[in-house]
Amino acid sequence: MENLTPKEIVTYLNQYVIGQNDAKKTIAVALRNRYRRMQLPQEIQADVIPKNILMIGSTGVGKTEIARRLAKMMELPFIKIEASKYTEVGFVGRDVESMIRDLAAISLKLVRESENSKNSEKIEAYIENKIIEKLLPPLPSGVSQQKKDDYDASFTRMQKKFEAGSLDHLMITIEMPAPTFDMEDSGLPPQMANVQESISKVLGGINKKGKEKEVTVQEAKKILAMEASQELLDDDKLKEIAIKKVEQGGIIFLDEVDKIAVPSNSQGRQDPSKEGVQRDLLPIVEGSSVHTKLGIINTDHILFIAAGAFHLSKPSDLIPELQGRFPLRVELNTLDEEVLYRILTEPKNSLIKQYKALLKVEDVDLLFGEDALKLIAHYSFLANEKTEDIGARRLHTVMEKILEEISFEADEHQGEEIEVDTQLIKDKLGKVVEDEDTTRYIL
Ligand SMILES: Nc1ncnc2c1ncn2[C@@H]1O[C@H](COP(=O)(O)OP(=O)(O)OP(=O)(O)O)[C@@H](O)[C@H]1O
Ligand SMILES: [Mg+2]
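Structure tokens for the assembled complex are given below, as produced in the milestone run.
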């Protein structure tokens, strides 16, 4: 996955995101450059810093979607955050460094999952042994060889049953994992977060042993999975890998950056904390060290992708230092009727496929003719034109409106085929779209 060529990355994205080729290409190249950099000799490697990207495009045209799909594919630590959520250091709220801490936590989870699946056999064996030991009467020490052999034989028999799942309903008593006080980053300022962590440690120390509880074998499997992972995998090692993954492959998707820009024409009503957040971002984007639960993380090579609609403000309204740290600019196109049609039908999990699948659950086959699909795209486009352009999200509101009755009454139509034809769509939407005011309310 790591050494996909830019072309391959774009091909992958094409399955989910229609159009927006510039944005796809830019991001694909940025990711490839990561890989290229890793092949360089050590001393050049340190100097090649990622070129951060600023995506500009109005709402609902696929900015977040591109980032989301990429993250899924690459299996890299990825976090999407809203820039407007942060406040300047010293004010109440989340400081920008917490995004690195969150990213670190995500990375650790990724690493643990991948190590778990690499060691799945060991982990399963651990769980199996633990449960069977609970089910069999314990073997007293110093018994005869005969007894031991008997014990082993019944152990093997139990193993067979366990694997066949015929023990799943039995009840056993197991020790619940000690309650962890490992709280999520709660938005406290760093100093307080440290205190919180120390308290967690102390409490965790007292509470080493968890309570015993009677559960079914099936539940026990799940409960023991975490314990097994902790017993068998070396936590420090995991943390080390997780830090490396963040430092070398982490991606931060900074959504809604336009919301922290201060428009130059907003006379007098300057919001100091917005600029403060921008200033706090500078060192992180450029590269600095952040304390996290895993250890110190260096942000030099984390890739930042910022995105925003920039309706009320312009990229030049960001403080110059921050502008300069996002050298790559890509604009995303607004969606015309043809693209809307393609978004409706082409993506791997397109809206049409989703609705078909949903109604299939009720044993109703939903059918759409070609002209019906065209009409849906047409009405969506019209609604975007006449009122606010909300991009592909308009398709959702339009589809909901068209299918509201079918959805509601689906249970009465079990085993039937329902065709959504142009007549139905016109009945539902024709009047609405003609009148701008009703469009505003209904779609
Ligand atoms: N070009 C596209 N191809 C396929 N689906 C799209 C495209 N653009 C938008 N969508 C769909 O529309 C929805 C909204 O898109 P997305 O979340 O990417 O919007 P956005 O550009 O991030 O908008 P905002 O500025 O409001 O955050 C998603 O469900 C996505 O699947
Ligand atoms: Mg978005």
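The CA atoms of residues 79 and 333 lie 24 Å apart. The chain has a mean pLDDT of 86. Further analysis is deferred to the final report.
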